[in-house]
Amino acid sequence: MNFQKQITHWYSIHKRDLPWRTTKDPYNIWLSEIILQQTQVKQGLPYYLSFIREFPTVFDLADATEEQVLKLWQGLGYYSRARNLHTTAKHIAFNLNGVFPDNYKDVLSLKGVGDYTASAITSICFNEANAVVDGNVYRVLSRFYGIDTPINSSKGIKEFKELASTLIDHKEPGNYNQAIMEFGARQCKPKNPNCNSCPVSDSCYAYKNKSIDQLPVKLKKTKVSARYFNFLVCIDKKKNTVIEKRTGKGIWQNLYQFPLIESNRSLKAEEFNLLKLENTILENSNFEFSLYNETDRIHKLSHQHLHTKFWIIEVDQLSRDNISIEKLRSYPTPVLISNFIEEFNFEAV
Prior knowledge:
single chain, alpha+beta, 5-stranded mixed sheet, two-stranded antiparallel ribbon, 14 helices, 40% helix
């Protein structure tokens, strides 16, 4: 039995029962693939179910506001995926009359869709023989064939795509693509793979050469920078507060946060008191403040770590647009902010 047949046979026995595997509707497949980019199935599944429940068709998603989409996406991270998802839904609904493109070239042209997603959608929905190459596939192929080309290099991306394309089952490309991804996720895992029960271990280079832990090879990541965020949680006597929308490019675009002062290092209470609070809700106001968390909360993003403090500001009256604290949860916020909102007792202030 060759590699492809062994992998698909394994899949027929061990595949998980997942809702997007019961349909070939491109809307459902596209939605699942966008959610599962850089997200594990156990984390992405509840989001998929929520989106399908809230937006059962591409027209429903297209008619939603961006805030509704971002709120439902809250906690998944990489919010540009949600914005691209919404943009593409509107394009399909309003420009393509709700008809999803049915070939690789046109699917690839959609905003937020790359080679992997286009290959997955067209192989599963339209039976096109386009090989998927995600983290799971990289791992399986690098170990089985003993390839040490870095998977995040230009050479590696091309080499693995070409190899994957020679292996794909042209009769059932969608089934094979899902099989090799599932195999990587559940059998040929990053750590402690199940080599003793692996159907292809006899032919696996890494298993025979005891190099499982060395493959795949990945170039070192970009240096992570540190940033220091001071959020001003302002509360007046009427239990109102202030939030602001992040605009422009950068992290958390179009999400809401408490007013922010960024510093060049972690601040102590006495240092914070000396800050010049220009153009803030505290301008020309008397206020008292306290530090909610003495130790910085470190929120890790791909290329930066945010060292965060929340400062509780009590003020008689807020001097600009404000909202009731009861409405806070209705706004899409970064998970760092939403976690604070859930745990902080606003009524006690």
